[in-house]
Amino acid sequence: MSSYAAPSRTVGRLKRPFGNLYYEVSGSGPALLFAHGLGGNHLSWWQQVAHFAPRYTCVAFAHRGFAPSDPVADGVDPADYAGDLAALIDHLGLSDVRLVGQSMGGWTMLEYALAHPDRVKALVLSSTSGTLDRRGSDPSGGTDYDKWFGASEARIAAGLARGIHPAMGEHAAERFPALHLLYRSIDEMAGALDKEKLRAGLRRTATRTLAGLKTFRVPTLLIAGAEDVVFPPFLASAIATSLPCGEAEIIQDAGHSPYFEQAAKFNELVDAFLARQH
Question: Which residues of the chain fall below pLDDT 50?
Fold first, then answer.
């Protein structure tokens, strides 16, 4: 008979001013928290939690407005995300944390790390620059960003016409149809959430400059997919070289969701990065 024992898992709801914030805690060890993107929720991290829970206390949550967290009557403001994370970390009594944010989740994780740098051992930004202004982070002065943006908008429109979710992309949908179906299903769990309004809020709050992060010494890994049509992958390296403790990795056969479509490679990169932090 097998002696395997699944990692411990608990489910909770934290009372916040908007309502209840849903979270799950799996495993044991140093704290590792995950913040999902616009098309996700806590379930987005199923491949990461299963991998890391034997060695880390994994915390996955659903941002306010994303089921099973409570909806927000007048819409979601991403400026509230870092405060929700801070309350959750305090509620769980975590003294130091490692943070992983995908796309929209980068707003949450970067802002928390900037506000509490002494509590963050490591930060992973996947397919995101968080609250940094994207075009302003382009070393070409915006030329490369503008060229990339025009091409990506056309590719997104062509994909949507064929039922392809931009966060997966054409190649991922073709290679991994089951993952594409699962991604779309998780995305649809958000129900009536106005994601276009939320996208506008994300753009409004992405105003930080690289110059403003010149003293930011939290070890930071930026991961991007070379086929991404939502986040310009070349910005990962550009931003990493501008940070005091930054590094970047580009996954060639991945789009906007490398954690989802190339989980083994993503987990390997995060594993190695976390192992280098003490």
Answer: none
